[in-house]
Amino acid sequence: CKNLTYDTSNLPTVGIVIIFTEEMWSALFRAVFSILDAGPEELITEIVLVDDASQKDTLGLPLDNYIRIFGGKVKLVRLPERKGLMVARNTGFQHVTGEVVVFLDGHCEVSKGWLEPLLQRIKEDDSVVAIPQSDVLKWDTFE
């Protein structure tokens, strides 16, 4: 797979939805930065963070202020009360402008080349549900 190249100008655009509740700041932004670093950024229309009614102070106003550094590429949607994974995913889906939606956990990390094969497969057959393989961060060591 490392030797494959993809014509990103012909791939669909993607919005990425990350659901979280009480997520650790460092894990959440490790996921966000890995997505943007791995790119290709021109295919990523937005990263939608859906907060399923977190109560941590750091996930309140500090989060609102911090995401400004992304210039609108990272959006934050807050649910006023805990709704659960499926309602949160559907809410995030409604805020995506890309042609494809990818749902990820708030404590994952992606690597270069993770997105292009998914989008290529969907481009070839839009009835495909492609599932990314992402690295899960260990809760106790963050490895």
Strand portion: 15-25%
Rounded to an integer in angstroms, the radius of gyration calculated over CA atoms is 15 Å
- For the biggest β-sheet, the strand order reads 3-2-1-4
Helix content: 25-40%
Query: What is the element string, with H for helices and E for strands?
Result: EHEHEHEEHE
Task: Please characterize this protein's 3D structure.
Strand 2, helix 2 and strand 3 form a beta-alpha-beta unit. The chain has 143 residues and is an alpha/beta fold. The strands form two sheets. A four-stranded parallel β-sheet has the order 3-2-1-4, with helices on both faces. It contains four helices and six strands, in the order E-H-E-H-E-H-E-E-H-E.
Give the topology, please.
Blueprint: E1 14-20, H1 25-38, E2 44-51, H2 61-66, E3 74-78, H3 85-93, E4 100-105, E5 108-109, H4 115-124, E6 135-136
Parallel strand pairs: 1-2, 1-4, 2-3
Antiparallel strand pairs: 5-6
GO molecular function, one term: polypeptide N-acetylgalactosaminyltransferase activity
InterPro entries: Glyco_trans_2-like (IPR001173), Nucleotide-diphossugar_trans (IPR029044)
Keywords: Disulfide bond
In short:
Residues 16-141 form the Glycosyltransferase 2-like domain. GO terms for molecular function: polypeptide N-acetylgalactosaminyltransferase activity. With 143 residues, this protein is an alpha/beta fold.
